[in-house]
C-alpha cells in the first residue's frame, strides 16, 4: 500500500484540534504524528472527518426515489461537499411503489461503499404532522407490510421513521428493534408519555427534531423532552430555515453529544432555483429555500453537510470539535460503524474533508482517494 501524509494542517479529532501529520496508508488512517512517505502540505487548512448524513433525499437535480442513476447523481453531489457516507432516504409513496423503490435502492446500496443503508421515512406517519408526505399514501402501522419492506431491503434498511402514537405504533417499534433496525420517532403528534414509551421500547432516534412533530410545551414537553430524558440521538437540519440557531443551541444543551447534523436535502441541492418534485408534490425552490407550491410548507432543504457544519460553528456557536462530531461521530456511533468511520483516528477509513479556515471545502478524500480533481 502507498503511505503518504497531510502535513501542516489543524486536525479536528473527537477530543480536540491538534497539530500533526495525518499519515494515510492505503484506504486507512495510520496515525496522527510524524509524517511518512509523500507529503502534501495543507498549512492554514483544517482536516475534518468525512461527514455522515443520516437523512438525505437527493441532490444535483436528482431524487433518490427515482432509481439507481438518480441515487448515484445525488450521492456524488453530496460527496463533493464532504459527505463520504450516508443513508439513502426514501419518502412515503403507495406501498407497491415503495416496495419497488426499496428494492432498487437496496441493490444500489449493497454495491456502493458510500451508502450505509436505507432510511424509510414513512408510510406509518401522522397525517397531522405529515409535512410533505402524501396523505393518500400514509398508512396505519401494519406489521406484515413492514416485514415486506424489510425483506425488499435485503438487510439494507437501517432506519425507519414512524409515529408511535398510531394504533400499533409501539409494536412496530419493537418489531424494528428485533430486526436490528433503528426506529426513529418523527412526523408524529406524540406527546411526552407516548414518546417515552417508544424510546423505552427501543426507538433511539428523533427525525429532524422540532420539525414534523408536536411543539415543545411547558406542560407537555412532547418528543423533544422525552428524547432528552431517554438519552437518544436527535437529528437537526441546521440551515437557518428549519431551525433557528438558538434552537440548535437548545438541542446541544439538552442532548450534549447526541445531536446529529443532517441535510434532509432534496433534489434541488447544488442545483438551480426552479420547480422540482418531491414525492407526489410540486416544489418551488427560490433563494435555495424549498416549499410546496400548494401551501408553502417547507419541503426538505437544499443544505449540504459542509454548510451545516459551517453554520454550526459560525452561526450557532459550536466548537469545531462539537460540529465535527455532530456531523460524523454521532451518526457513525448511532449506526454502529464508529470503529470504521466518523473520526480522524488510527484505523478508521481515510475519509477526510480539507477546508480553509472558514470551513469552505477545498478537497475531499474517501477511502484514501480524492473524490474529484480538487487538491488543497
From TrEMBL:
Substrate binds at residues 132, 211-212, 219, 242, 298-300. Zn(2+) binds at residues 121, 187, 208. Its cofactor is a divalent metal cation. GO terms for biological process: N-acetylglucosamine catabolic process. GO terms for molecular function: metal ion binding; N-acetylglucosamine-6-phosphate deacetylase activity. Pfam families: Amidohydro_1. Binds 1 divalent metal cation per subunit. Keywords: Carbohydrate metabolism, Hydrolase, Metal-binding. The active site is at residue 264. Residues 46-363 form the Amidohydrolase-related domain. InterPro entries: Amidohydro-rel (IPR006680), GlcNAc_6-P_deAcase (IPR003764), Metal-dep_hydrolase_composite (IPR011059), Metal_Hydrolase (IPR032466). The keyword Manganese does not apply. Belongs to the metallo-dependent hydrolases superfamily. NagA family. NCBIfam families: nagA (TIGR00221). This is N-acetylglucosamine 6-phosphate deacetylase. It comes from Nakamurella panacisegetis.
Amino acid at each position: 500500500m502507498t503511505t503518504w501524509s497531510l502535513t501542516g494542517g489543524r486536525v479536528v479529532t473527537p477530543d480536540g484540534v491538534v497539530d500533526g501529520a495525518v499519515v494515510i496508508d492505503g484506504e486507512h488512517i495510520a496515525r496522527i504524528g510524524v509524517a511518512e512517505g509523500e507529503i502534501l502540505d495543507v498549512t492554514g487548512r483544517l482536516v475534518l472527518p468525512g461527514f455522515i448524513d443520516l437523512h438525505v433525499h437527493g441532490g444535483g437535480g436528482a431524487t433518490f426515489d427515482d432509481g439507481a442513476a438518480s441515487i448515484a447523481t445525488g450521492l456524488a453531489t453530496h460527496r463533493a461537499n464532504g459527505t463520504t457516507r450516508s443513508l439513502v432516504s426514501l419518502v412515503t409513496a403507495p406501498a407497491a411503489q415503495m416496495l419497488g423503490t426499496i428494492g432498487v435502492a437496496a441493490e444500489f446500496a449493497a454495491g456502493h461503499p458510500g451508502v450505509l443503508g436505507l432510511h424509510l421515512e414513512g408510510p406509518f406517519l401522522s397525517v397531522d404532522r405529515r409535512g410533505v408526505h402524501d396523505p393518500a399514501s400514509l398508512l396505519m402501522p401494519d406489521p406484515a407490510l413492514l416485514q415486506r419492506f424489510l425483506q425488499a431491503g435485503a438487510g439494507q434498511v437501517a432506519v425507519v421513521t414512524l409515529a408511535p402514537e398510531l394504533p400499533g405504533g409501539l409494536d412496530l417499534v419493537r418489531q424494528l428493534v428485533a430486526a436490528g433496525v433503528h426506529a426513529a420517532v418523527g412526523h408524529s403528534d406524540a406527546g411526552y408519555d407516548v414518546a417515552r414509551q417508544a424510546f423505552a421500547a427501543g426507538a433511539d432516534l428523533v427525525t429532524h427534531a422540532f420539525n414534523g412533530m408536536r411543539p415543545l410545551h411547558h406542560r407537555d414537553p412532547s418528543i423533544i423532552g422525552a428524547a432528552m430524558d431517554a438519552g437518544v440521538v436527535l437529528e437537526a437540519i441546521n440551515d437557518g430555515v428549519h431551525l433557528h440557531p438558538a434552537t440548535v443551541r437548545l438541542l446541544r444543551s439538552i442532548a450534549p453529544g447526541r445531536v446529529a447534523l443532517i441535510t434532509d436535502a432534496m433534489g434541488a441541492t447544488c442545483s438551480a432555483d426552479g420547480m422540482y418534485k418531491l414525492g407526489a408534490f410540486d416544489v418551488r425552490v427560490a433563494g435555495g429555500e424549498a416549499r410546496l407550491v400548494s401551501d408553502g410548507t417547507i419541503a426538505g432543504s437544499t443544505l449540504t453537510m459542509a454548510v451545516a457544519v459551517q453554520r454550526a460553528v459560525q452561526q450557532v456557536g459550536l466548537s469545531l470539535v462539537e460540529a465535527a462530531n455532530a456531523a460524523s461521530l454521532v451518526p457513525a456511533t448511532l449506526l454502529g460503524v464508529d470503529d470504521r468511520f466518523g473520526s480522524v483516528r488510527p484505523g478508521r477509513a481515510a475519509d477526510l474533508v480539507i477546508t480553509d479556515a472558514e470551513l469552505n471545502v477545498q478537497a475531499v478524500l474517501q477511502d484514501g482517494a480524492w473524490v474529484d480533481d480538487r487538491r488543497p
